[in-house]
Design goal:
- Chain C: It holds the Pfam family BPD_transp_2.
- The complex is a heterotetramer of chains A (335), B (509), C (364) and D (309).
- By secondary structure, chain A is mostly helical.
- Chain A has 14 helices and two strands.
- A two-stranded antiparallel sheet of chain A has the order 1-2.
- In chain A, α12 crosses α14.
- The mean pLDDT of chain A is 90.
- Chain C is globular.
- Chain C is built from 16 helices and no strands.
- Chain D has 309 residues and is of the alpha/beta class.
- Chain D is built from ten helices and twelve strands.
- In chain D, the strands form two sheets. In chain D, strands 2-1-3-4-5-11 form a six-stranded parallel sheet, with helices on both faces. In chain D, strands 7-6-8-9-10-12 form a six-stranded mixed sheet, sandwiched between helices.
- The relative contact order of chain D is 0.17.
- The chains are: A mainly alpha (335), B alpha/beta (509), C mainly alpha (364), D alpha/beta (309).
- Chains in contact: A-B, A-C, A-D, B-C, C-D.
- At the A-C interface, α3, α4, α12 and α14 of A face α5, α6, α13, α15 and α16 of C.
- The structure holds adenosine-5'-triphosphate (2 copies) and magnesium ion (MG) (2 copies).
- One adenosine-5'-triphosphate sits at the interface of chains B and A.
Amino acid sequence: MDFLTLIQVLDSTVRLATPLLLACLAGLYSERAGIFDIGLEGKMLMAAFFSAAIAAVTGNVWLGLLAGIASSLLLSGLHGLASITFRGNQLISGVAINFLAAGLTVLIAQDWFKQGGRTPSLLSGGRFEGLEWPFAIGPEDAAATGRPVSQLMKEAGPVQQVYSELLSGHSILVYLAFLAVPATWWILYRTRFGLRLRAVGENPAAVDTAGVSVVGLRFAAVAICGVLCGIAGAYLATALQAGFVKDMTAGRGFIALAALIFAKWRPWQAMGACLLFGLLQAIALRFQNIELGPIVVPVQAMDALPYILTVVILAGFVGKAVPPRAGGEPYVKER
Amino acid sequence: MTAPAIELKGISKSFGPVQANKDISISVAPGTIHGIIGENGAGKSTLMSILYGFYKADKGEIWINGKQTEIPDSQAAIVAGIGMVFQHFKLVENFTVLENIVLGAEDGGLLMPSLTEARKILKELAAEYELNVDPDKRIDEIGVGMQQRVEILKALYRQADILILDEPTGVLTPPEADQLFRILGRLRAEGKTIILITHKLREIMEATDTVSVMRRGQMTATVKTSETSPEHLAELMVGRKVLLRVDKLPAKPGKPVLEIEQLRIVDGAGVERLKGIDLTVHAGEILGIAGVAGNGQSELMEVLGGMRSGEGSIRLNGAALPLHGAGSDARARRAAHVAHVPEDRQREGLIMDFHAWENTAFGYHHAPEYQRGLLMNNAAIRADTEAKMKKFDVRPPDPLLAAKNFSGGNQQKIVVAREIERNPDLLLIGQPTRGVDIGAIEFIHKQIVDLRDQGKAILLVSVELEEILSLADRVAVMFDGMIMGERIVAETDEKELGLMMAGVAGEAA
Amino acid sequence: MEKMPKWADVVLIPLISLMLAAGLSALVILAIGEDPVAAVKLMVDGALGSSYGWGYTLYYATNFMFTGLAVAVAAHAGLFNIGGEGQAMLGGLGVAVICLFIPWPHWTLALLFACLGAGLFGAAWAAIPAYLQAKRGSHIVITTIMFNFIAAAVLNYVLVNVLKPASSMDPASARFSETVHLPTLHELLAPLGIAFSKSAPANVSLLVAVFACLAVWLLIWRTSLGFEIRAFGRSEAGARYAGISPVKITIIAMMISGALAGMMATNNVMGEAERLVLNATEGAGFIGIAVALMGRNHPFGVFLAAILFGFLYQGGAELALWTKIPRELIVVIQALVILFTGALDNMVRIPLEKIFLAFRKEPS
Amino acid sequence: EPALIFDLGGKFDKSFNEAAFGGAQRWAEETGGTFREIELQSEAQREQALRRFAEAGANPIVTMGFAMADPLSSVAPDYPDTKFVVIDVTWLDAPNIRQVGFAEHEGSYLVGMMAAMASKSDTVGFVGGMDVPLIRHFGCGYAQGVKAVNPDATVIANMTGTTPSAWNDPVKGSELTKAQISQGADVVYAAAGGTGVGVLQTAADEGILSIGVDSNQNHLHPGKVLTSMLKRVDVAVYDAMSAGDAVEAGVFSMGLAEEGVGYALDDNNAALVTDDMKAAVDKARQQIIDGEIEVVSYYADNSCPALKF
Ligand SMILES: Nc1ncnc2c1ncn2[C@@H]1O[C@H](COP(=O)(O)OP(=O)(O)OP(=O)(O)O)[C@@H](O)[C@H]1O
Ligand SMILES: Nc1ncnc2c1ncn2[C@@H]1O[C@H](COP(=O)(O)OP(=O)(O)OP(=O)(O)O)[C@@H](O)[C@H]1O
Ligand SMILES: [Mg+2]
Ligand SMILES: [Mg+2]
């Protein structure tokens, strides 16, 4: 594999890691606050649909993004209602939310657009398009020289290749997702909110008796989770693709969950895990079976690798993943 | 006349069908230490948790410094100047001491300035009250005594004028407890008001100005400490004259039944919990294990009962029992005629959702008399349960009632009946009367003594020195995973044992 | 004292939850501009109005009984087995191996060994997460989710690269031989003079499923193993006190659970498709969660709930066939059932408990 | 009343299934008749859908795609009075099935020629759906067309996957297209059902030309889709429905001569197709019909002279 191909695979990694990263950070806020969330998938799916639907109807992708976030928030609210207010089983609530999203998106899409559960393809105003950085090789250069971009790229130096191919040209949501990583780290470890958030996931009674509302904190965390899942879903439907098709999240919510465990609930590591899983996806997308000398790695192995790695991490063979101590448990004061 | 620092009027609180507090009124003068005593489950913690805004009362009013105050949550309580150290600490284990202290009392959205500020204040407080802790240690790295200091510092950091301590000495050694009382004295001298919940009459007599007694959710009396006596308080607590000693004949110890040599336990975190225990229990005697909670008694019972593994050797009637691997589990212990009444009956001794009859078979569910072919013989178990319930006077005698629907005393009777009626060679019995009403205490004590008189060996663990002194023939004191010494009960007293419990070694017996 | 009588817990709460879910579903149907009454009528007609409809309802119900029992058995041990889907997929592989490579003289024998094969594969697939939970403390919910995805990849690989006949284009195994064909209800009932639709797939596996319900009931409430499973599920500390090995019970309960999920393959793979196809499970593993929740983890409850969901599935298929309502409506209903009977249980329970408590207090 | 069973890509895949829908729609509009339809969601549903329609008396029952072969072979004998129609299957042995195959390689040959003529980089791409002989058949014809115009041209071929989900994976289509573009391709032919939507989208985004398949997909990105390889599934469906229950069973092949395949020319791509191009392609078309040019079929010996997969 030559350098440019490598850069291109990494470029595709960044694109594919973005929804994972957003969903993973979403899960991080929720689970750090003690609310397990296996409904990331459903929230993303819901947001993907509503962002595409509203963007298709209004032609404005920003309105689409807002609608996606709002729909995801609604599901977050449901999860909060079930697991915080009514102290129900968080896992079961997550399962229900995944099904709800899988069913409702198709039902509504069919009702609105009558295209077998998809939205119409989004035209350019309805999509997040790539941001070309200054001096990056782009269509203008191609037009000026009369030669295709791929040719120009091939002839450029490695720095220019990295700059133009890997860094430049992603949609704004990609940059947002990667900026969210340091932001999350800072919020978690450098702010009062972060301290309380981490505390409520470890020992809600300590937070409660310290005079801080457990319910408020947890709802705040779940809401942040909703917003991030909303962005993740909108990215899928309006940036990575141009419209919604049913089940378009295709298990990304679960890969994000896996990445979260892989990262042991820490932001920088979450980025690493998402990039790794994104890389696996990029490789699986580009190459069917990978020949490593005499062994052929089937594409199915690449598909399954994130899950296998997560199980290995969970099993503690490579470091131990200890979830937030109060995670999954409703905070019950009076039995 | 100054207004009372705290005045509670007509507080009621129920948890579902359980009425924990019934129309309670109490008044505490500022600058005093007020004790609250009462049996387990009397409602002491509930009442204080209401004052601290942890629970919300169903009815009643709270007045602070003469003003009626709504306390819907702990924030309100903190604002009203109340601080509370809970029976079970409320600390975030993997946070540092400093982080625990600022949690909820940060000033500003950013963390660093708060932490710097808190570090300074903490230093001052530590100097002022002899409350030294390392602010950068994580909670799970420090001992319980230290953790309690953190809890007290948390309250002081929030400038509490009223400090509630719920059974603070249960986890402390006598010297640590003494230091605590010194600190409390100093706080009182500064005009702070302190409420102290404890079971220990001695602490009430020594440290408090006034004392309230609770029984079954009600406040039975409030008296000046100087005008009362331990006997009087005990009577108020249980509602009738208390029998302090159990009627029993002197023991006639026979051959050794249980011989423990160099027993060690290292827990999952690598901490050594038992550090080479040597003990012998003879047929026909009761050996009591005294000690402050958390000094290895639970681990000793667990390893003997087959609930965890250990190193060293134990022999039962001369035959070695494996301490780990195959044959070291509780099922094998039962097969070897070791019966076990666990310390925590609700967590271990019973399955609370199971019916009484299922609980009667619990642990013995493989017994041949409970089987019929491949299936369990439920009818036989039920009949057996009815017989045992009758003999032990379990009320109501209904095998189909779930364990959680029996009262604590009756729950304990179900467990004791199950274990004693197996006619074991060795009975391990932990905290046999914790949370049990006085009538049941007498009954259970009598059953234990009867078993001894049949020539069985009994190992009794209790944190109540009084219980050990009245029931055991011999006593061994545990401290920090070691036996500090053994005494013949008739030849020792509370004072000597108390010193040993604090880690001051007595001469070997 | 109980907060509430047992019948309220076992019957009243699921009923109210179900009604809430049904009400919301009706609103959803209304919202997409269809008539809920007509929809229900169509569903009832299509699912229960003919022996053909019943045949499909029972066919689906058979699947759900297996997966529902799987979730229920694990739940009694305090474990949430969300991996029924993957275990059922592997069960399919087990059935395919048994049926494709061994020349069976008669279907009875084939079914017996198919049950074994499916159970074994399913149990093995559940055993790994169980072991990891018991020995290494990995959260079983997460591992079983991961194992669902891994199972899909394994099946995909095996179908495409191993089992697919060389001449065929679709990723599916060859058809099983005629001798392992399981008698359908039509064939079973014909000798009794009962006419049953010839084309409905309900087959003798239904009896296996009913038998499994019975066996699970016996196991859970009548054997000492069941006693240990239930005790462990209620209190791990208690189990250790009673000499019940947490490791052993976790693994055994999960293997039974996985075996039950795997045995679903006798119905959908051996009984219906008669070959192994991709996604043969069609989400039945997840429906098992709803079925177990509805049925309160009791085999009889699971039996009833499975039939209810069988009805929903067949009715939903009919809706998709004859109206503009997409099949996803069933997914929404399923989600609502899980939500109300599972996650929002307390929403119904707490007010109900208050009512019962108030009634009890007044007389005294 | 006829019935139509769509394959997993779904009725609105803008391609294979949508073409069938178009044919059925035309029949319905022209005759005022109605038809039953269902979109399959999973493999396991195929048989139930067939039986349900047969039970309900639908006739003929039109089904899409080679994956219906197996279920049909077990269902059709149970309903001897019902006529079944299947597209892309030609090897079943049953008296009541009409099996329609297309000479996709011939149509692909024509669009391959156009691709080669439009390419400036002498590199063209092919994105297939599920890796099955049928799709290789497409690719093989395409590559032969490319080489016929420019023997030195490079054809980059990728398949989306090995399972039916490959028909409906636009993200993967898009990624594969990006990869091909970076290898220099400036015309990409998508024969991948719903996955093709992602291919065409990315091609349009990145400023290269694409070629649609099955339906006329020129309108999806006007001025950016060079042409579409038409596979007249719509005609096959229309004909079957028009014939009603009298539809003739047997195996039928539709090639260039039968106007079963072809290329699309309309306002959306008029500016892209030069007169030279049109002349060359039309000439080749006639030559193929006349047997002067032989387009090798991948099925002949499961290999392709012009392309390695
Ligand atoms: N959170 C709760 N939910 C339900 N019931 C409770 C709760 N807390 C306490 N109770 C019940 O209320 C009653 C009073 O309990 P409380 O903890 O106040 O007793 P206590 O006097 O502090 O006992 P102890 O000496 O054991 O600490 C008991 O019956 C107890 O079981
Ligand atoms: N979810 C349920 N659905 C249907 N029936 C149930 C359900 N739960 C319990 N039952 C039935 O209610 C009765 C009482 O339940 P349960 O088995 O818990 O009681 P039990 O007193 O332990 O009786 P048994 O010893 O017969 O099991 C039994 O007949 C049982 O079959
Ligand atoms: Mg208390
Ligand atoms: Mg029962």
